[in-house]
Putative homeobox-leucine zipper protein ATHB-15 (Davidia involucrata), 740 residues
Amino acid sequence: ENDRLQKQVSHLVYENSYFRQHTQNATLATTDTSCESVVTIGQHHVTPQHPPRDASPAGLLSIAEETLTEFISKATGTAVEWVQMPGMKPGPDSIGIIAISHGCTGVAARACGLVGLEPARVAEILKDRPSWFRDCRSVDVLNVLSTGNGGTIELLYMQLYAPTTLASARDFWLLHYTSVLEDGSLVVCQRSLNNTQNGPSMPPVQHFVRAEILPSGYLIRPCEGGGSIIHIVDHMNLEPWSVPEVLRPLYQSSTLLAQRTTMAALRQLRQISQDVSQPSVTGWGRRPAALRALGQRLSKGFNEAVNGFTDEGWSMIESDGIDDVTLLVNSSPGKMMGANLSYADGFLSMSNAVLCAKASMLLQNVPPAILLRFLREHRSEWADSGIDAYSAAAIKAGPCTLPGSRAGSFGGQVILPLAHTIEHEEFMEVVKLENIGHYREDMIMPGDIFLLQLCSGVDENAVGTCAELIFAPIDASFSDDAPLLPSGFRIIPLDSGADASSPNRTLDLASALEVGPTGNRASGDYSGHYGSKKSVMTIAFQFAFEIHLQENIVSMARQYVRSIVASVQRVALALSPSHFGSQAGLRPPPGTPEAHTLACWICQSYRCFLGVELLKPVSEGSESILKTLWHHSDALMCCSLKELPVFTFANQAGLDMLETTFVALQDITLEKIFDDPGRKTLYSELPQIMQQGFACLQGGICLSGMGRPVSYERAVAWKVLNEEENAHCICFMFINWSFV
């Protein structure tokens, strides 16, 4: 309240000095109305001391003029203290001059840029918020009034999507004012109409939290040589009190507001200006505007899935007792955007419902851009090819059968670029998944699968950028009106300065990422410019299906999203910057013992079975043991005791020998690294290892994960026992190895 009053005082002082400077040269004209006096100084309308603040035209005009004054003082004055947005470097390639607020109520961002469009066209584009603001669900114009000075007042109701599954969506009840200033500048400004202003009211809407837009808008000045100079101000109070504490940084970040709203407006203007000046046809014969429309459909479909509004036909399915994955079903025909009503090859599509499985989780110490890039480039690490094939077939004509577990595999992933936006902030591509394996004859499956994919936020040098990977299966014909059922990932960084601890159990999916009493700590090159140590990731997958298969689809979707969550956690952990103070990068995936505990088991078992120490004496503490084990010159690697043993841990030399990473380690089976003679020797020695506890293997040749031959002088294998003296895994040590 003190802050608000201080700003109000500053604003009054600013207005007072302005009027004092202009009073001597201005013509005073007083017009008496039935309510009270309205004072005009020159062409500037001044709010009277007690203006009408009701729903009458005079009352709305009074609010509009006050909004205009406050907006102008923010756009060109010092009503808000502005600081340059971190990471934005002014220059010829810059999108504009971007600033964020410091110490004001709510969150605010300001931008100034030059675009090659006339002011009227700029205003037309910016007023159509849903076309460029991806978070905007809808804008409804409920009333329009013309003012005596040639302006227009509109009463609007606007809804914004929630960015995650863990918070409610926001809505706004707004007054919109369009007018022309004395110097010819066009102004579009707006503010929330709340009860304190005694204006027209809008009742609360279910599932939405009513937020506030403080005086904001667009100041558009014509340039002599054509084009416009535009000033944008976005100032909001997003009611952060209504979300879990860990998420409040999302609603208190002016940087995020600038990225997702203010800069999005400038990019749209620059993109349309470029289309006008340099008309072109991009990938697959599409014009940029057509591709942007497809991108908008992808984004909107993903947002609808994340939010699951009941007025779109979504209803929640009862949980199986574990609340990590939320399931919703939609049997509304409109949801499929015409897919269930369209004909193809003479058949009517049988899919008449959509299932959405979604989850959110907290991630630690992994830059969103790095993680998203990995998910994009290594789809096989998390995706199930059988389910991809099912999703592709489900939007086609004809009945579809449920996918089997890993029914087929993709021989390759080909990414075909389509288009990118200004500054390469966002790009669209077609992903071709090739060489589907053999499927049962009763499954109608395509040979190759095509996904339309939207990707943004992959530049790790950008500060506070939201990273998104959204995709939907498409037909090879790729028609503009093809049905799209988007799925994907969204990763939003959380402000590192905020305390992100929360008792909310929904976020405990990431609890396995906590290492030690203080959790992971970023280190090395990552800690400098990523700025955020935590981020929230939202996953949403949609499946078209026949309504009588709902029970089976629900089970499949729940299991699939849980497997994706586990894969993402494994990838995120491996991509975290490793630092031997916390051993962040050395820990095996969730469900296995801590890396330092495993290191102790390895050394104790070696001593028990071979009677000698594996490592030279080190200082007390398991972390020192792990550090020494990690840097051991011989290649050490552990494999599971499953029917098909896979590697679960390796030290640095082991990863080097296998030519792999911690992420891909579990994809390498034990038998894959041995040639035929080596496999025969290994199988003959395995019983001895399990009974006697160890075995010594003669030197020979093995293969790296890339298929390169590796020679070793000798090898030792021993059984690793846990604290209950049960066999946990087998450890191999390859001595004096080298690539042939």
In short: DSSP finds 14 helices and 31 strands in the chain.
